[in-house]
Structures are given as C-alpha cells and as structure tokens.
Amino acid sequence: MPRVYIGVGSNHQRAYNIQSAARELGTCFGALTLSSVYESRAVGSAQGHFYNMVIGLNTTLPLIALRQRLHQIERAYGRVRGGAAGGCFPLDLDLLLYGDYVGPVNDRFVPRPDIEQYAFVLCPLAEIAGEVRHPQRGERYRTLWQRFDKRRQPLRRVPLVLEGVALQPQGSRPRRAGLTQVVGAAG
Fold first, then answer.
1. Residue 186 included in any domain
2. Which residues contact 13 (CB under 8 A, 6 or more apart)?
3. Are the C-beta atoms of 87 and 42 separated by less than 8 Å?
4. Which pLDDT score, from 0 to 100, does residue 47 have?
5. 3-class DSSP state of 16
6. What is the b/e burial string over 73-88, where b = at least 16 CB atoms within 10 angstroms of the residue's CB?
C-alpha cells in the first residue's frame, strides 16, 4: 500500500475548505498525518492569500483512481479546473507523492515539481515526511527545506482546529505540529 502525500490549498473560505478537505480525506482513506496549516501569498494567476498544508495517507487505490477521487472532492467544493474564476481556488488537492512512483499521471508528473519550488509545499511536507527521500534526487525533504531560501516565500503558521479528523501517529509520537488535537485523535 503506497504512502501518499497530498498538498491542500485554498484562497476562498480558506479555513472552512481546509477543514472540509481534511474531513473528506479522512472519510475516504482513514487515519491521516497532518502538517500544520500555513498562510502564504498567492503565486501565479491566483489572488489573495492561501492556506496550505500537506496530508499523508495510505491508500489501496491505483494512481489514476486516486487522482480522479481528488478531483471529485475538489469539484464538490467548487473547484473549476482549467483556470480558476478570477483567481479563486476554493480547494486545490495536488498529488505530491505516490510511494516511490516517478512518472506521468495524465497531464501531471509525480513527484510534483512544486515540491522543490514552493515553500508552501516543501515546508509542510518536510514537517510530516522529513526523513522521506525524494524518489528522484535521493535527498530527504528535511534537507531540501533546510537549504530552501525562505526569504523569497514567507510563510505564517495558522492555528486551525481540524475537528472530526482521525490523526495517524507519525513514527512513535502523535502528530501535533501546531494543530489543536481533537477528541478521538491520537495523542
């Protein structure tokens, strides 16, 4: 069963959509490993500020089926692919890693090049998968984050309560990393 990491972002009803995505992914896939939530400025055609996080999970779904499921969840929260209306991204679920797979997935590539390009992807990924090695570069995500020029893409950690999400312990300790623990969560 591959370990999967998904980048989650929103610049519209940010807290609601981030919380909803975590609950939806927990319903679909069971216990999750959650990074902290970070606020960052929009990049590219998007506007405003985003909330971003990374979620780790295990799945039995094949790669294409997983990507289709992520797109279904995005659509349920108002995501329009092929260009967001006015730079609005209610929910963006990016498949960052699918085990050690390296290669194309329809119109994207896994691992996502975004991992090394954007602080809002690399920082939360290094937080929950710091010892995992990039399947192409062979370097740990913690090392990649340590070398990243943090001045060019500032992040701010956001205290956000994620209610109703089953948390999966990372290693032998529960995932806390700035998130308020919820009833029934590990820890």
1. no
2. 90
3. yes
4. 73
5. helix
6. bbeebebeeeebeeeb
Angle at 120 between CA 118 and CA 122, to 5 degrees: 65
Q: How far is CA 109 from the centre of its chain?
A: 16
Q: What is the CATH number of the domain that holds 24?
A: 3.30.70.560
The letter for the amino acid at 91 is L
H runs (alpha helix) in 51-165 = 63-76, 114-117, 119-129, 141-147
Q: In this predicted model, what pLDDT tens digit does every residue of 82-98 receive, in sequence order?
A: 655 556 788 999 999 99
Q: H-helix or E-strand containing 108?
A: strand 108-110
**Could you tell me the two tokens for 183?**
């009833």
What tokens were used for 26? 């927990």
Phi–psi pair at 93, nearest 5 degrees: -115, 105
Q: Domain range holding 139?
A: 3-158
* pTM of the complete model: 0.85
User: How far apart are alpha carbons 33 and 39 in whole angstroms?
Assistant: 19
Specify the number of domains making up the chain. 1
